[in-house]
Amino acid sequence: MASEFQVANMIRFLVDSYNKPVPAILEIPSKDHPYDPAHDSVLSRVKYLFSAESVASGRR
Predict the structure, then answer these.
(1) Counting CB atoms within 10 angstroms of each CB, which of 10, 18, 34, 42 has the fewest?
(2) Domain count of the chain?
């Protein structure tokens, strides 16, 4: 578990480049560094999958 803001940023590129099933990385925000969904590549992938799924289900 990476609970330090600097550590999370140091490994972010590894998570971004990971091309297998979604890795289990939990980023716990702090008061000094709140959660920023713009930097969450896993959340972006999930949003993409759900938007692609909704488009596909609309084509039936």
Answers:
(1) 34
(2) 1
Residue 12: CATH number of its domain:
3.40.50.10580
Residue 25 has pLDDT above 70, yes or no: no
Range with lowest mean pLDDT among 1-5, 27-31, 37-41, 44-48: 1-5
Pairwise CA distance, residues 20 & 58, whole Å: 27
AA letter at 41: S
Range of the domain at 20: 5-58
How far apart are alpha carbons 56 and 9 in whole angstroms?
34
pTM over 0.90: no
Q: 27 - beta bridge partners?
A: 2
Q: Where does the pLDDT of residue 15 fall: very low under 50, low under 70, confident under 90, or very high at 90 and above?
A: confident
